[in-house]
Amino acid sequence: QVQLVESGGGLVQPGGSTRLSCEVSGSMVNINYLGWYRQAPGKEREEVARITTRGVTTYTDSTRGRFTISRDIANKRLNLQMDNLKPEDTAIYLCSAVTYYGHVYWGQGTGVTVSS
After folding, report:
1. I need a surface site. Which of 2, 18, 85, 116 has the fewest CB within 10 A?
2. 63-92 core/surface letters (b: 16 or more CB in 10 A; e: else)
């Protein structure tokens, strides 16, 4: 089993920055990629960014250029640097680990609120 625990987040002013982290424990032998998702009330869960085991990154159009995903394989830590935040970025952010066979592990999430 894989466990993921997010940290960071909170209240941020529009245009501000914050950094989320995700500590990953358990076996990562079958992990294909790590990713960040977000979910706001009344909206579908949206993938924000992912990074594969080869280091290839993918971003959703609304966050590309503002968010940066990175990971430390040795320390099993996934990060999301969030810059130039907008009110529409407000959501619960969850980290995930996806195996090569399609199983998805989820963290419990951490809240980010962008407001003045």
Report:
1. 116
2. beeebbbebeeeebbbbbebeebeeebbbb
Distance, in Å, from the CA atom of 52 to the CA atom of 88, rounded to the nearest integer, reads 26
Beta bridge partners of 111: 92
Q: Which two tokens stand for residue 109?
A: 């999430």
In DSSP terms, 47 is beta-bridged to 37
Chain position carrying tokens 């424990």:
25
The Cα 22–Cα 6 span in angstroms is 4
| CB-count exposure of residue 58 (10 Å: 0-12, 13-18, 19+) | middle
Condensed to tens digits (0 to 9), the pLDDT of residues 40-87 reads 989 999 999 999 988 899 999 999 999 999 998 666 899 999 999 999
> What are the structure tokens assigned to 91, written together?
């959501």
What DSSP letter does each residue of 25-38 carry, written as one string? Answer: EE--TTEEEEEEEE
Is residue 109 within 8 Å of 92, Cβ to Cβ?
yes
pLDDT, residue 88, reads: 95
pLDDT at 75: 62
